Amino acid sequence: MKMGYAAVGFGPGEMKLGTDLTVLLLDMDEKTNPLVSANVSLDNPAAARNKLYKIVEVGGMRIGITSVLGKKELPGERGGRLRTLEPYQAIREFLANFVPRL
Questions:
Q1: Engineered SS bond to 39: which of 31, 77, 85, 88, CB 3.0-4.6 Å?
Q2: Does residue 1 sit within a domain?
Q3: In the chain, count of helices (H) and strands (E)?
Q4: Which phi and psi angles does 82 have, rounded to 5°?
Q5: The model's pTM
Q6: Per-10-residue mean pLDDT, the chain, length 102
Q7: Domain limits at 60?
């Protein structure tokens, strides 16, 4: 059964998969993996493959979707290609980059 989600917030469950699997999830094609997160990304958060947020149009309105993991859900040890930001920092960066695109 296809759910048809435009985006899915990256959450604590994905972080429990471990760094290697988390990197694989984040690196998947957006068409097959709708995960978004403002504070979990691959090496360079500005890279096109990072899904920090998604903008969808519904009923003539543009809607922004993202997620922000809380501090306790972020991995204590960041490995290799995984980059995380403190929630307050991610929200500031998200607002600065996202709002002008709406």
A1: 85
A2: no
A3: 3, 6
A4: -80, 130
A5: 0.71
A6: 73 73 68 79 62 86 88 69 83 81 68
A7: 8-101
